[in-house]
Input
Amino acid sequence: MNWVLYGLLSATCAALVAILGKVGIAHIDSTLATTVRAVIMAVFLVLTTLLLGKVPQLSSIDSRAIFYIALSAIAGALSWLFYFYALKNGPVAGVVSLDRLSLVFAIILAAIFLGEKLSWTVAAGVVLMVGGALLIVTK
Output
């Protein structure tokens, strides 16, 4: 399978996160729900790592990689805390539309910090995505 198929599978699973999450947090605190979700995810991922035989590769991770992975984990945890709070209090379509603006932020940050090129077609896509999110969020 190539990266496009994995990307589409990721998007499908992300859509399920929104729908199943909205139902799951209907009668509980969003922070508690996020914590329970994170614990279940951690157990699932540890089991997956064990089943795929990836544990021996742990020793090959250097401290710089660990540092950036840790920062990414904190950013991810904050993202999910905010996401579930927004999902608890807002409509799925609006919350997911705003959340997917992370693509816009990632493109801009990748250009600034990673030196990735920003073509006119990518810039046009960014403008269209922001416009689409605004159309969905505003009534």
Notes: The chain has a mean pLDDT of 93.
